[in-house]
């Protein structure tokens, strides 16, 4: 189990925080503007990355990510 501090823009941290809560991933938003996330296993790490990418990734980053997933299946 590890704790990580993610540097997320203030306007986006609440959307990410609420999505992580829906996924039952422990996180909090302290007054300093950070988003603190508790990562307990690999699945949670993948879900966190996916959530952050969906909300903050550029269109190009999301397309490249999707293409990598398609190639991985081959």
Low-confidence stretches: none
**Share in β-strands:** 15-25%
Query: SS-based structural class?
Result: alpha+beta
Q: Determine the number of helices (DSSP H or I, runs of at least 4 residues).
A: 3
Order of secondary-structure elements: EHEEHH
Q: Which shape, going by the Cα principal axes? A: globular
Q: Give the domain tally.
A: 1
**Reported CATH architecture:** 2-Layer Sandwich
State the CATH topology: Alpha-Beta Plaits
Trace the largest sheet across and list its strands.
Answer: 1-3-2
Average pLDDT rating: 87
Radius of gyration, in angstroms, nearest whole number: 13 Å
Task: Specify the helix fraction band.
Answer: 55-70%
What kind of sheet is the major sheet?
3 strands, antiparallel
How far apart lie the N and C ends?
Answer: 33 Å
CATH class: Alpha Beta
Question: What's the quaternary structure here?
Answer: single chain
Would you count the extended β strands for me? 3
